[in-house]
Design a protein that fits this description.
Strand order of the largest sheet: 2-8-7-6-5-3-4
Largest sheet: 7 strands, mixed
CATH topology of the largest domain: Aspartate Aminotransferase, domain 2
Number of helices: 12
CATH architecture of the largest domain: 3-Layer(aba) Sandwich
Keywords: Amino-acid biosynthesis, Aminotransferase, Histidine biosynthesis, Pyridoxal phosphate, Transferase
Cofactor: pyridoxal 5'-phosphate
Strand content: 5-15%
InterPro entries: Aminotransferase_I/II_large, ArAT, HisP_aminotrans, HistidinolP_aminotransfase, PyrdxlP-dep_Trfase, PyrdxlP-dep_Trfase_major, PyrdxlP-dep_Trfase_small
CATH class of the largest domain: Alpha Beta
Order of helices and strands: EHHEHEHEHEHEHEEHHHEHEEEH
Helix content: 25-40%
Bound molecules: pyridoxal-5'-phosphate
CATH superfamily of the largest domain: Type I PLP-dependent aspartate aminotransferase-like (Major domain)
Radius of gyration: 21 Å
Structural class: alpha/beta
EC number: 2.6.1.9
Low-confidence stretches: none
Protein name: Histidinol-phosphate aminotransferase
């Protein structure tokens, strides 16, 4: 037998899969509480009913319900759809990966906005699909006309992210319907709504209502952000039963653990509290955006729990200035994404931002 390197065991498509690049942790600074504003996590623990429910003992020796029946039923009731319209997975990330698996193969094309969620190129490349990232508009929203133009006979999947991570704007109802009218019915459109609970823009698309109009639309949502359950890994898809049945085939069996299923159910039963907290984060976000604009920054409208500073070549220096103040923010090279944390953290970021402007830009907006 000839000796081969282990690399020859791996599909060539893997060469196209980007590696995950973690952000920098905050430096330890005497007298300063460190804040991690780099992962869009909730800065509070889950609501108290969920924390209490987690002390209930579940036996780790037994497998979870593979179909997550109780959680699926709870979600179906909450969303006012039947259970065959909902599939749960180990985070929205598993749902997105499953949606890529059920649509993409070598030779097919996938269209997504860029910059957007880092998993899109990864999940697409794993399936050997041809990636078509489409740049954002000058306002940092989706360029939906350009995305529609990019559709060819080989296009199988289109990913939309509303509100868009990392830049913040939501897709409006008008933009969405104009776009969908141009998408062939055999192309699956995924609306990634990881941050929908923080959206306060009345013109944003009402995704659940849209499901009734477009059979090729599927929504992705998660308990990671507004429900403050990122560590528990629970996400879900809402769509037509045929698509949902395929997603169930493509997700890992037993992926959502019993404590996770239970936490998600309790959190949904107290969803009013979750929404109240999301809206207070939205209010803090709007104040933070106003304060940055008052300093002279060009900040896109954000409908999520983070704000984007389009710093371009100054991104690394800004991240470094934050790290020195014991603040972790996310440098994505074309800009820096800052998650909304407690008021003290946002005040500290504003101080860093003001000093940064003085040092790096005298008058001009960036
Ligand atoms: C956080 C996030 C998700 C899902 O994350 P999970 O933790 O896997 O549920 C999906 N899309 C976007 C844009 C996100 O930011």
């Amino acid at each position: 037998m000839t000796q081969k390197t282990a690399t020859s065991l791996i599909r060539p498509a893997l060469e196209e899969v980007p590696n995950y690049k973690p952000g920098k942790p905050p430096a330890a600074v005497d007298g300063l509480q460190p804040y991690k504003l780099s992962s869009n996590e909730h800065f509070l623990p889950p609501i108290s009913a969920v924390v209490e429910a987690l002390t209930e003992v579940t036996n780790p020796a037994t497998y979870p319900d593979p179909a997550a029946k109780a959680l699926t039923a709870e979600l179906a009731n909450y969303l006012q759809v039947s259970e065959d319209h909902v599939a749960v997975g180990a985070g929205g990330s598993e749902i997105i990966t499953a949606l890529a698996h059920i649509t993409l193969e070598a030779g097919s094309e996938v269209i997504y906005p860029w910059p957007s969620f880092e998993l899109y190129p990864q999940a697409s490349a794993l399936n050997g699909a041809h990636k078509k990232p489409i740049g954002l508009t000058d306002d940092f929203g989706h360029d939906l006309p350009a995305m529609a133009q990019a559709i060819t006979d080989d296009t199988r999947l289109i990913l939309l992210c509303s509100p868009n991570n990392p830049t913040g704007p939501a897709v409006t109802a008008d933009e969405f319907t104009t776009f969908m009218a141009q998408v062939p019915s055999d192309v699956l459109v995924v609306l990634d709504e990881a941050y929908w609970e923080f959206c306060t823009d009345a013109s944003a698309v009402d995704s659940l209502a849209m499901l009734k109009h477009y059979e090729n639309l599927v929504l992705m949502r998660t308990f990671s952000k507004a429900h403050a359950l990122a560590g528990f890994r629970i996400g879900y898809a809402v769509g037509q039963p045929e698509v949902i049945a395929a997603v169930r085939k493509a997700t890992v069996p037993f992926g959502v653990t019993p404590p996770s299923q239970h936490a998600a159910i309790v959190s949904l039963r107290h969803v009013d509290q979750v929404m109240t907290r999301a809206h207070s984060i939205a209010a803090a976000r709007d104040e933070f955006v106003d304060a940055l604009r008052a300093q002279g920054w060009n900040v896109p409208d954000s409908q999520a729990n983070f704000v984007w500073l389009p710093l371009a070549e100054h991104s690394a220096a800004f991240e470094e200035a934050c790290v020195k103040q014991s603040l972790a923010v996310r440098n994505l090279n074309s800009g820096v994404r800052i998650s909304i944390g407690p008021p003290e953290a946002m005040d500290r970021v504003l101080n860093v931002a003001a000093r940064f402007r003085q040092r790096h830009f005298s008058t001009n907006k960036v």
